[in-house]
Design a protein that fits this description.
- The chain has 285 residues and is mostly helical.
- The protein has one domain: Ribonucleotide Reductase, subunit A.
- The chain has helices spanning 2-28, 32-36, 40-49, 67-86, 96-100, 104-130, 140-151, 154-178, 182-209, 215-244, 251-272.
- The protein is globular, with a radius of gyration of 20 Å.
Length: 285
Protein backbone atom coordinates (compact mmCIF):
# COMPACT_ATOMS: atom_id res chain seq x y z
CA UNK A 1 0.00 0.00 0.00
CA UNK A 2 2.76 2.42 0.99
CA UNK A 3 4.71 1.57 -2.16
CA UNK A 4 1.64 2.23 -4.34
CA UNK A 5 1.01 5.59 -2.67
CA UNK A 6 4.66 6.56 -3.15
CA UNK A 7 4.43 5.67 -6.84
CA UNK A 8 1.26 7.75 -7.23
CA UNK A 9 2.90 10.69 -5.41
CA UNK A 10 6.02 10.45 -7.58
CA UNK A 11 3.87 10.31 -10.71
CA UNK A 12 1.94 13.41 -9.64
CA UNK A 13 5.17 15.28 -8.83
CA UNK A 14 6.59 14.36 -12.22
CA UNK A 15 3.43 15.54 -13.97
CA UNK A 16 3.34 18.83 -12.06
CA UNK A 17 7.04 19.41 -12.74
CA UNK A 18 6.48 18.78 -16.43
CA UNK A 19 3.55 21.21 -16.55
CA UNK A 20 5.49 23.85 -14.61
CA UNK A 21 8.42 23.44 -16.95
CA UNK A 22 6.24 23.83 -20.05
CA UNK A 23 4.60 26.96 -18.62
CA UNK A 24 7.98 28.44 -17.68
CA UNK A 25 9.25 27.71 -21.17
CA UNK A 26 6.23 29.42 -22.72
CA UNK A 27 6.83 32.53 -20.64
CA UNK A 28 10.60 32.69 -21.12
CA UNK A 29 11.15 31.50 -24.70
CA UNK A 30 12.89 34.06 -26.96
CA UNK A 31 10.33 36.04 -28.95
CA UNK A 32 10.10 35.69 -32.71
CA UNK A 33 10.68 39.43 -33.04
CA UNK A 34 13.94 39.33 -31.08
CA UNK A 35 15.18 36.38 -33.13
CA UNK A 36 14.54 38.32 -36.35
CA UNK A 37 16.78 41.15 -35.12
CA UNK A 38 19.85 38.89 -34.86
CA UNK A 39 22.06 38.84 -37.96
CA UNK A 40 22.16 35.05 -38.19
CA UNK A 41 23.91 35.05 -41.56
CA UNK A 42 26.79 36.99 -40.01
CA UNK A 43 27.21 34.28 -37.39
CA UNK A 44 27.05 31.53 -40.01
CA UNK A 45 29.97 33.28 -41.74
CA UNK A 46 31.79 33.71 -38.40
CA UNK A 47 31.72 30.00 -37.64
CA UNK A 48 32.83 29.16 -41.18
CA UNK A 49 35.81 31.56 -40.89
CA UNK A 50 36.71 30.24 -37.47
CA UNK A 51 37.39 26.79 -38.92
CA UNK A 52 40.49 28.22 -40.59
CA UNK A 53 43.98 28.69 -39.15
CA UNK A 54 43.62 26.31 -36.22
CA UNK A 55 47.08 24.82 -35.68
CA UNK A 56 46.93 21.64 -33.62
CA UNK A 57 49.00 21.74 -30.41
CA UNK A 58 52.15 19.61 -30.59
CA UNK A 59 51.00 16.90 -28.22
CA UNK A 60 54.22 14.91 -28.63
CA UNK A 61 56.57 17.57 -27.28
CA UNK A 62 58.17 16.69 -23.92
CA UNK A 63 56.36 18.11 -20.89
CA UNK A 64 58.01 20.12 -18.13
CA UNK A 65 55.28 19.42 -15.59
CA UNK A 66 56.23 17.21 -12.66
CA UNK A 67 54.31 13.95 -12.11
CA UNK A 68 52.80 15.31 -8.89
CA UNK A 69 51.32 18.33 -10.66
CA UNK A 70 50.11 16.15 -13.55
CA UNK A 71 48.24 13.94 -11.08
CA UNK A 72 46.62 17.01 -9.52
CA UNK A 73 45.66 18.55 -12.88
CA UNK A 74 44.31 15.45 -14.62
CA UNK A 75 40.89 15.28 -12.88
CA UNK A 76 40.20 18.84 -14.02
CA UNK A 77 41.06 18.09 -17.64
CA UNK A 78 38.97 14.90 -17.52
CA UNK A 79 35.92 16.74 -16.21
CA UNK A 80 36.28 19.53 -18.75
CA UNK A 81 36.48 16.98 -21.57
CA UNK A 82 33.08 15.68 -20.44
CA UNK A 83 31.50 19.09 -19.84
CA UNK A 84 32.96 21.05 -22.76
CA UNK A 85 31.19 19.24 -25.58
CA UNK A 86 31.87 15.69 -24.45
CA UNK A 87 28.30 15.24 -23.19
CA UNK A 88 25.14 16.11 -25.15
CA UNK A 89 26.59 18.64 -27.60
CA UNK A 90 23.25 20.27 -28.35
CA UNK A 91 20.45 22.24 -26.73
CA UNK A 92 18.56 19.83 -24.46
CA UNK A 93 15.79 21.97 -22.90
CA UNK A 94 12.34 20.45 -23.35
CA UNK A 95 11.42 23.30 -25.74
CA UNK A 96 14.81 23.60 -27.45
CA UNK A 97 13.79 22.24 -30.83
CA UNK A 98 11.25 25.01 -31.38
CA UNK A 99 14.05 27.57 -30.95
CA UNK A 100 16.68 25.66 -32.91
CA UNK A 101 14.46 24.97 -35.91
CA UNK A 102 12.66 28.31 -36.18
CA UNK A 103 14.81 29.21 -39.24
CA UNK A 104 17.48 27.43 -41.25
CA UNK A 105 20.17 29.93 -40.21
CA UNK A 106 19.33 29.63 -36.50
CA UNK A 107 19.76 25.88 -36.85
CA UNK A 108 23.08 26.32 -38.67
CA UNK A 109 24.43 28.71 -36.04
CA UNK A 110 23.40 26.52 -33.11
CA UNK A 111 24.86 23.43 -34.78
CA UNK A 112 28.13 25.24 -35.57
CA UNK A 113 28.37 26.53 -32.00
CA UNK A 114 28.06 23.04 -30.56
CA UNK A 115 30.40 21.65 -33.19
CA UNK A 116 33.08 23.94 -31.81
CA UNK A 117 32.27 22.71 -28.30
CA UNK A 118 32.81 19.15 -29.52
CA UNK A 119 36.16 20.34 -30.86
CA UNK A 120 37.06 21.54 -27.37
CA UNK A 121 36.22 18.10 -25.98
CA UNK A 122 38.51 16.57 -28.61
CA UNK A 123 41.38 18.89 -27.65
CA UNK A 124 40.86 18.16 -23.97
CA UNK A 125 40.76 14.46 -24.77
CA UNK A 126 44.17 14.76 -26.40
CA UNK A 127 45.44 16.54 -23.29
CA UNK A 128 44.04 13.75 -21.11
CA UNK A 129 45.77 11.15 -23.32
CA UNK A 130 49.02 13.12 -23.17
CA UNK A 131 49.13 12.74 -19.41
CA UNK A 132 47.79 9.19 -19.23
CA UNK A 133 44.34 10.07 -17.88
CA UNK A 134 40.95 8.45 -18.43
CA UNK A 135 37.92 9.59 -20.41
CA UNK A 136 35.08 9.84 -17.90
CA UNK A 137 31.43 9.42 -18.91
CA UNK A 138 29.67 11.09 -15.98
CA UNK A 139 30.21 13.43 -13.04
CA UNK A 140 27.76 14.74 -10.44
CA UNK A 141 28.25 18.39 -11.41
CA UNK A 142 27.67 17.66 -15.10
CA UNK A 143 24.55 15.57 -14.36
CA UNK A 144 23.11 18.41 -12.23
CA UNK A 145 23.96 20.94 -14.94
CA UNK A 146 22.13 18.90 -17.60
CA UNK A 147 19.08 18.42 -15.36
CA UNK A 148 18.73 22.18 -14.88
CA UNK A 149 19.10 22.77 -18.62
CA UNK A 150 16.40 20.25 -19.48
CA UNK A 151 13.75 21.42 -17.03
CA UNK A 152 13.89 25.22 -17.07
CA UNK A 153 13.37 25.93 -20.77
CA UNK A 154 15.55 27.06 -23.64
CA UNK A 155 15.89 30.71 -22.59
CA UNK A 156 17.27 29.72 -19.21
CA UNK A 157 19.42 27.05 -20.87
CA UNK A 158 20.92 29.67 -23.19
CA UNK A 159 21.69 31.94 -20.24
CA UNK A 160 23.19 29.03 -18.32
CA UNK A 161 25.39 28.09 -21.27
CA UNK A 162 26.46 31.72 -21.70
CA UNK A 163 27.50 31.95 -18.04
CA UNK A 164 29.30 28.63 -18.36
CA UNK A 165 31.28 30.05 -21.29
CA UNK A 166 32.11 33.16 -19.27
CA UNK A 167 33.38 31.31 -16.19
CA UNK A 168 35.12 28.68 -18.35
CA UNK A 169 36.99 31.50 -20.09
CA UNK A 170 38.21 32.61 -16.66
CA UNK A 171 39.34 29.04 -15.96
CA UNK A 172 41.22 28.72 -19.26
CA UNK A 173 42.95 32.06 -18.73
CA UNK A 174 44.11 31.01 -15.28
CA UNK A 175 45.27 27.63 -16.61
CA UNK A 176 47.08 29.19 -19.59
CA UNK A 177 48.82 31.73 -17.35
CA UNK A 178 50.05 29.20 -14.80
CA UNK A 179 50.73 25.93 -16.60
CA UNK A 180 54.27 25.31 -17.86
CA UNK A 181 53.31 23.16 -20.82
CA UNK A 182 53.31 24.52 -24.35
CA UNK A 183 50.61 22.21 -25.82
CA UNK A 184 48.23 23.05 -22.96
CA UNK A 185 48.86 26.77 -23.46
CA UNK A 186 48.15 26.38 -27.19
CA UNK A 187 44.98 24.40 -26.41
CA UNK A 188 43.77 27.14 -24.05
CA UNK A 189 44.45 29.80 -26.71
CA UNK A 190 42.33 27.93 -29.28
CA UNK A 191 39.46 27.40 -26.84
CA UNK A 192 39.57 31.01 -25.64
CA UNK A 193 39.41 32.21 -29.25
CA UNK A 194 36.23 30.18 -29.77
CA UNK A 195 34.67 31.20 -26.46
CA UNK A 196 35.15 34.88 -27.30
CA UNK A 197 33.08 34.34 -30.44
CA UNK A 198 30.41 32.41 -28.54
CA UNK A 199 30.08 35.15 -25.93
CA UNK A 200 29.86 37.80 -28.66
CA UNK A 201 27.07 35.80 -30.34
CA UNK A 202 25.14 35.63 -27.06
CA UNK A 203 25.68 39.36 -26.57
CA UNK A 204 23.99 40.14 -29.89
CA UNK A 205 21.19 37.65 -29.19
CA UNK A 206 20.47 39.11 -25.74
CA UNK A 207 20.76 42.69 -26.96
CA UNK A 208 18.02 41.96 -29.50
CA UNK A 209 15.88 40.19 -26.91
CA UNK A 210 15.94 42.73 -24.08
CA UNK A 211 16.38 46.12 -25.73
CA UNK A 212 13.13 47.29 -24.15
CA UNK A 213 13.98 46.02 -20.65
CA UNK A 214 14.73 49.12 -18.57
CA UNK A 215 14.46 50.40 -15.02
CA UNK A 216 13.85 47.96 -12.19
CA UNK A 217 13.41 45.02 -14.58
CA UNK A 218 16.90 45.53 -15.99
CA UNK A 219 18.36 45.93 -12.51
CA UNK A 220 16.72 42.68 -11.45
CA UNK A 221 18.01 40.94 -14.56
CA UNK A 222 21.54 42.17 -13.93
CA UNK A 223 21.35 41.11 -10.27
CA UNK A 224 20.30 37.57 -11.17
CA UNK A 225 22.95 37.43 -13.93
CA UNK A 226 25.71 38.34 -11.46
CA UNK A 227 24.33 35.92 -8.87
CA UNK A 228 24.06 33.03 -11.30
CA UNK A 229 27.47 33.88 -12.72
CA UNK A 230 29.21 33.69 -9.36
CA UNK A 231 27.22 30.58 -8.46
CA UNK A 232 28.46 28.90 -11.65
CA UNK A 233 31.98 30.11 -10.93
CA UNK A 234 31.90 28.71 -7.41
CA UNK A 235 30.60 25.32 -8.55
CA UNK A 236 33.42 25.23 -11.12
CA UNK A 237 36.12 26.31 -8.69
CA UNK A 238 35.04 23.90 -5.95
CA UNK A 239 35.81 21.09 -8.42
CA UNK A 240 38.77 22.56 -10.27
CA UNK A 241 40.48 24.98 -7.91
CA UNK A 242 42.32 22.23 -5.98
CA UNK A 243 43.59 20.88 -9.33
CA UNK A 244 45.05 24.28 -10.31
CA UNK A 245 46.43 25.35 -6.93
CA UNK A 246 49.60 23.23 -7.40
CA UNK A 247 50.29 25.22 -10.59
CA UNK A 248 50.30 28.45 -8.56
CA UNK A 249 46.74 29.56 -9.35
CA UNK A 250 44.81 31.25 -6.55
CA UNK A 251 41.17 31.77 -5.64
CA UNK A 252 41.58 35.53 -5.98
CA UNK A 253 43.07 35.22 -9.46
CA UNK A 254 40.14 33.11 -10.69
CA UNK A 255 37.41 35.29 -9.18
CA UNK A 256 39.04 38.46 -10.54
CA UNK A 257 38.84 36.94 -14.00
CA UNK A 258 35.19 36.00 -13.45
CA UNK A 259 34.31 39.48 -12.20
CA UNK A 260 36.07 41.10 -15.16
CA UNK A 261 34.30 38.83 -17.68
CA UNK A 262 30.82 39.44 -16.24
CA UNK A 263 31.44 43.18 -15.94
CA UNK A 264 32.59 43.37 -19.58
CA UNK A 265 29.54 41.48 -20.79
CA UNK A 266 27.00 43.51 -18.79
CA UNK A 267 28.61 46.80 -19.80
CA UNK A 268 28.59 45.88 -23.49
CA UNK A 269 24.97 44.80 -23.22
CA UNK A 270 24.08 48.18 -21.69
CA UNK A 271 25.91 49.94 -24.50
CA UNK A 272 23.90 48.01 -27.08
CA UNK A 273 20.73 49.16 -25.33
CA UNK A 274 21.96 52.78 -25.20
CA UNK A 275 22.05 52.73 -21.39
CA UNK A 276 25.79 53.23 -20.97
CA UNK A 277 28.14 55.70 -22.72
CA UNK A 278 30.77 54.17 -25.00
CA UNK A 279 33.62 56.02 -23.26
CA UNK A 280 33.35 53.88 -20.08
CA UNK A 281 36.55 51.89 -19.83
CA UNK A 282 36.47 48.08 -19.89
CA UNK A 283 39.20 46.45 -17.84
CA UNK A 284 41.82 44.72 -19.96
CA UNK A 285 42.85 41.10 -19.64
Amino acid sequence: MKISMMRVAMSLMKDLSSRAGRELGRLTAPSAESLREVDWEKWVRHFERNKRNRPEPDWDVATRISPGIVNALLPSLEQFELGDGGGPACLIAFDAEAFRSCTRNVQRVVDAWFEEEKGHARLLGRAVDRFGGKHIKTHWSFSAFCAVRRFLGVRFELETLLLTEIVSSAYYRVLKRNVEDRPLKEMCALILRDEAGHIAFHLERLAAADRSVVGIRRQLWEAQFWLLGFTAATVLWVNHGPCLWPLGATNGEFYREVRREIFRFVLRLKRRAGLEPWNVQIASH
